[in-house]
Design a protein that fits this description.
Elements (H helix, E strand, L loop, with lengths): L2 H13 L3 H12 L7 H8 L29 H12 L6 H14 L3 H11 L9 H12 L3 H11 L2 H8 L3 H5 L13 E4 L3 H8 L7 E6 L3 E8 L2 E5 L11 H9 L4 E10 L9 H9 L6 E11 L2 E2 L5 H11 L8 E4 L2 H13 L4 E6 L9 E8 L3 E12 L8 E9 L7 E7 L5 H14 L5 H4 L2 E3 L5 E6 L1 E4 L7 E4 L2 E5 L11 H6 L4
Parallel strand pairs: 1-10
Antiparallel strand pairs: 2-8, 2-9, 3-4, 3-5, 5-6, 6-7, 9-10, 11-12, 11-14, 11-15, 12-13, 15-18, 16-17
Length: 509
């Protein structure tokens, strides 16, 4: 298959908001794919390279040769080129990688160059998420969608499930839980408060639910098979070598084979959680800060698969295997008052919030359903928009990602930047802010000169965020975590926005 065909499909998928139309476009392309191309095409249609690391980023694809006039690149040629780049290392690798980029991109047409740049930088925004790709695979392979989804969850990727799907239902059914092969983790939906979360699981209030403390650590999945231990992240990256203390805990448990789900967390001497970035940096490299594993689910133990077992069975098995100091704190209750008090205590102890869980539900690997519901306190700030970036993909032509600032009397401009966000914006909001920020651009020339458009600091926006972390990237020394737009505050002047001191006070909250 020519890369040009795949790029055209990606463009068509990005251009429609109809899920049905997206699936149809993906299916039409998949129907033309050869067996040797299938895994690469499925990965590319989902917006991801097959290689986890290529050594490329924005800088590596910012200076490109002139595009080709006619398409000639095949999908497999592109895959082989990135595979060769991923193997480059040592002296001279930077120069060799630059030459490889020039060779590949020099053979690409202008649309192909734009798409290749987007996939390298993780910026293919076409709305073709795994779930949509799985629908297309099921349609073309003529197999049940549920079977494809389950295989993708257990194999850890849609790419692996696609290969099995085209081999038939038996091949899909043969993909099961294997100790040592990571699976996609179960995810939680959200609720505004504990009462709402409990009401969703037990409308009449008669059924007990589990309330887990929500730790602000790194999600880990731990596999043990004899002396062999594997520790992976939420994205299934292998970090076993970086967390020897987790390996030690796993080897000390009284079972030979198991799969555990939990969090790794850095703690202070008094047992309170350290800042998220301390845990995150520790799992990225050995910073000397120890982490402690805390587990909240058990998926397999000594030959017994628990994926389809109800939550109460999995928790009973978890409690029998893992000592209390390595289990997430939990309350089982039907009393909203007791649950709310537990949540309040969890937040007071420095944790993110709680997760309310249906005790009758199986472990839905890779799914964000209603069986787990997270509840976190929401912090809000009124900030000022300092600049805005042009959007890409579905948001191309709109001013999208906004730069957020707090008032700072010590700054020459009167404001200090805290981060960026494009979360929480509806289409109506994007249209409004494109018009509004065009008016606020420092000069008409800045609307054309580059990616970022500096603005007059006049527009106040209400931002929700999950927390703060220390930052050397921003002059204020802090950055917002998971910031998203609630609304624009036309009723507030910029001199009424929150100050940097108000922002910093949230660290102690």
């Amino acid at each position: 298959m020519l890369l040009a065909e795949l790029v055209a499909t990606s463009v068509a998928v990005a251009a429609t908001r109809s899920r049905k139309a997206k699936v149809a476009a993906l299916a039409e392309t998949l129907a033309r794919v050869g067996a040797d191309e299938l895994e690469v095409v499925v990965s590319y249609l989902g917006g991801a390279l097959r290689q986890r690391r290529t050594g490329l980023g924005w800088r590596g694809v910012s200076d490109l040769p002139s595009p080709a006039d006619e398409p000639s690149l095949s999908v497999l040629e592109v895959h082989e080129a990135f595979e060769a780049m991923s193997r480059l290392a040592g002296a001279g690798s930077q120069l060799a990688r630059k030459q490889a980029v020039d060779d590949l991109f020099g053979r690409a047409t202008a649309p192909e160059q734009a798409w290749l740049r987007a996939i390298v930088t993780g910026n293919v925004r076409q709305g073709a998420l795994d779930a949509v790709t799985q629908e297309a695979v099921a349609q073309v392979a003529d197999v049940p969608l549920a079977a494809v989804r389950r295989a993708a969850m257990l194999a850890g990727s849609t790419v692996a499930a696609a290969g099995a799907a085209f081999a038939g239902e038996e091949a899909l059914a043969a993909i099961g839980l294997e100790v040592g092969r990571p699976i996609m983790p179960m995810l939680a939906s959200s609720a505004p408060d504990v009462a709402a979360a409990m009401a969703g699981l037990s409308p009449d209030g008669s059924v007990e639910v589990a309330i887990d403390t929500k730790l602000d650590g790194i999600r880990i999945q731990v596999h043990r098979d004899g002396d062999e231990v594997l520790v992976v992240t939420r994205s299934l990256d292998d970090i076993t070598g970086r967390l020897p203390e987790v390996v030690q805990v796993a080897r000390a448990l009284p079972a030979e084979r198991f799969v555990l789900d939990g969090e790794a967390l850095a703690l202070t001497d008094d047992g309170r959680p350290m800042a998220f970035q301390d845990t995150a940096s520790r799992t990225a490299q050995d910073t000397g800060v120890p982490v402690t594993p805390h587990f909240f689910d058990l998926l397999h133990v000594d030959g017994r698969d628990l994926l389809d077992a109800p939550g109460h069975e999995r928790l009973a098995a978890l409690d029998a295997l893992v000592p209390e100091q390595h289990r997430v704190r939990r309350l089982v209750t039907a009393d909203p008052g007791a649950a709310d008090a537990f949540a309040t205590d969890s937040v007071a102890a420095g944790h993110e919030g709680v997760v309310v869980k249906d005790l009758s539900a199986p472990y839905a690997a890779g799914r964000r359903g209603s069986a787990w519901v997270k509840v976190k306190p929401v912090h809000t700030l009124d900030l000022v928009v300092l600049a805005v970036e042009w959007g890409s993909g579905r948001r191309e032509g709109w001013l999208s990602n906004i730069h957020l600032g707090a008032r700072d009397p010590a700054s020459e401009t009167g404001f200090v930047m805290l981060g960026k966000t494009f979360k929480g914006m509806t289409d109506e909001m994007l249209a409004w802010q494109t018009e509004r920020f065009t008016e606020l651009a420092l000069s008409p020339a800045t609307m054309r000169e580059g990616y970022v458009v500096p603005l007059r600091p006049e527009q106040v926006v209400e931002i929700a965020f999950d927390g703060l972390q220390r930052s050397t990237r921003y002059p204020g020394g802090v950055a917002l975590r998971f910031a998203r737009v609630i609304r624009y505050r036309d009723d507030k002047r910029p001199d009424e926005a929150d100050t940097i001191e108000t922002v910093r006070a949230h660290i102690a909250d």
